[in-house]
Predict the 3D structure of the following.
Amino acid sequence: MGKATILVTGGAGYVGSHVAGELLAKQYHVVVYDRNAVPEGLKAREQRDLLNSVQADLADRPALEAALSRFEPKAAIHLAGDISVGESVEDPAKYYGNNIAAGLNLLEALVEHGVQRLVFSSSAAVYGMPQAVPIPEDHPTAPINPYGRTKCMFEHILRDFDAAYGLRSISMRYFNAAGADPSAEIGEAHDPETHLVPLILQVPLGMRNSIAIYGTDYPTRDGTCVRDYIHVSDLAAAHILALEALLDGCPSDVFNLGNGDGHTVREVIAAAEKVVGSPIKAVETQRRAGDPPRLVASSGKAVKQLGWQPRYGELESIIQTAWRWHRRQAGQE
């Protein structure tokens, strides 16, 4: 008798494919539910017919119902949704539709099919402009952009679903995911790309002429935004620990996931230059709407209660894994 079947929404995406890979490595049966196809690198890691996929949108209730009826998952890990702060400011309707309405569709279907455990991909964006850094989980939530508001709203919805329907959940408020699986089989590829590390690495790969620095007048040590970069494999491991805690009967909860160290945009560029061994051209431009100056996690709660132990604490080691994957994708390795 194998381990439980887990539904992974957004399992073809960046974080989702790493979470699905971690589940497969631990011999869980995985159902990837995503409107995009499962990456070939994830398929390559599959063993013993543990991986199934459904290519459909969460807004497609009949497809969702059919998947739940067919595979009968024990729990769900919900990573589907839109993730760009800037885009959410420009097109909030898209974010409320995909992150709230489609997510609510998932929750209703899970309750209807008796699935009572869910791990949710939340975000540090729920905190808005932090009053204290590092940010603890009991810090007030006051998101300053539509993306953050959708994450915060969904956490409230989850609390209500727990109280009314018994759907227990753990929300993972993670900071800046970066890096790639050490095997270089799966990594980060958004279209369009919005995350800093892959955008920086596109410069030495010849895919762009320079990297933009959005704002140089923030109240930080060099005027650029500070973020807490956490390796995607460490994020994936934390999701499995949260899942297993729910399966073992723990109540609903919220956890931050970060390294507890902040790096400015200029520092990330400098670290990438060390990894690639050449200068990376940067161009200074205006601030983006909705960007807090500094976001750094206090992750002690996850370490203490989930037994989480991040393996990649150094920024250069995180970027090194990303560089290897991007070079392989570009045919340079």
